[in-house]
Amino acid sequence: MAGGYRWVRPEIYPLFAAMGTALSICAFSLVRNAFTNPDVRINKADRTAGYLENFEEGEKYREHNLRKFLSEREPHIFDGITKVFTSSK
């Protein structure tokens, strides 16, 4: 570039990645809560119903597939290090 100013510098790329990840997580949470949460009622007919005792729907919302997947795993982040420090000799 002859005399031009570069708008996006390479040192900004990690910031773009972090902000993109954060915005993606926020968008996912917003969409999931707006469309699948049993306590959120968007249309007027559902809002006038008042308090609903829909425990099955609430349990279905709470026990989603990611939670089911993670509940079957051991809660270790670094398995090798954990086994070294917790194994009895």
From TrEMBL:
Domain of life, source organism: Eukaryota
Keywords (A to Z) from UniProt: Membrane, Transmembrane, Transmembrane helix
InterPro entries xref list: B12D
Residues annotated as transmembrane: 12-31
This protein's record includes keyword Transmembrane: yes
Identification of the protein by name: NADH-ubiquinone reductase complex 1 MLRQ subunit
